[in-house]
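Problem: given the chain below (439 residues), write out its structure.
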Amino acid sequence: MLNQMKKIFTLIIPFLGIVSVSLAQKITLEEALKMGLENRIEIKNQNLQVQIAESENQKVRAKWLPQLSGSLDMRWNTQLQTTILPFDITGTNPGGTTQAKFGLPFNNTLGVQLDQKIFDASQNTDRKINNLQTENQQNTLEQQKVNIKQTITEAYYLVVFNQERITFAEKQVERNQANFADAETKFKSGTLLQDDFDKFSLDLSNAQISLQKAKQDLELSLDALKYQINSTNNITVADKLANILKSMDNQIAASIEQRTEIKAEEISFRLNELNAKKQRIKNLPTLSAYGNYSALQLSNEFNPFKSGTWFPFNYVGLRLNVPLFDGGQARLSAKDYVVRQQINRNNVEKLKADFDYEAKNAFKQMAQARLDIGETQKNVNLAQQILATNQLRYEKGTLTLSDLKNAEFSLQNAQNNYLSSVYNFLVANVRYKKAVGGL
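Solution.
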């Protein structure tokens, strides 16, 4: 009963896998990259950061529009203030003073104030700073896109790699099944020893385990790819390793100067330069105009609607604000930004050295992987020829079983080396593109 259940389970699992693959959406690398850049949350958030940065210039322009404000002041003087006049107005105290109280208990004021900037040297600098902040956020967006492209591409290549592993593993299972069936016939006829028959059975079992492991690795790599493109749909890749190799462009027109990390330091350098300038112009005067229209109510009782108690007044003027001494704060702050500029220069120099080393190292790895592909391909072809010859010799009885097994192992090892060299080349190519700013 247990063996029957195992057989049924063995038949169902491949069927479910076929159904799952048939329902999965086949996507190319370009489609995977497009989906990832559209779906990733960090890209969406960074686009919002760009929008926020772009809106800052609107705020600067809004500061130069007329600023209109209204005010209402309702006051009850519970005790009027006493004022001393330096003369006597009552005639009872010649040469003396007079105590007087001015005003009425209820004073209500309703006014409108209009302010308009005329001159402020920081306006142009603020606008340039905001433009650079926007450029910095856009550069951060590009940097995130580059990193996401790398992770998606490597995840995609890993799926293709595991699919090829399954193909080789399936062929290995087919070979071992054929060998096992032949060995079983010989064993039943008494021309094969039990020990040798067990070796065929063990090889078939190991081949099936390797196939199952390859399928599990494929599922894991597909899950990783789905995570990278932030998709919940069933997917599979449409490309093959051979097709990817044929379409690979070895001519990468880029340089490390295009790296977003270097651009970030260059933007930071210009920002520090503008901030230093902004600190220095803080001591320049500012000029603004203003106007006010108000109405004042004076009354013995609280009644804002009482006629004849409201008295209008208005005025216009210019306001000049001239900073005289701030304790040297602006000068010291400007000096700090100049020091930060030197830090930016040092960072750019270090980044260029790092990226130059990274690019050279990635290029060497890519070149070596390309050579490995050619050599391992030759080894696969040779191992296939040797196995075919040894298979015939074994069937004729001129080759030992151990020699046949060695030939099968050599082919399996050559195929694994070939797949690894192709995958290593693809990954090295992606990392080289990133290193030189071409991804």
